[in-house]
Amino acid sequence: MTADQYPGQAPTPEQARAELVATLNAIEDKLNVPKQMHRAKRRMIVRIATVKVERPAVFYAGVAGVAAVAGLAVWGIVRSLTR
Question: Quick check: 35 and 29 in contact, CB under 8 A?
Answer without folding.
Answer: yes
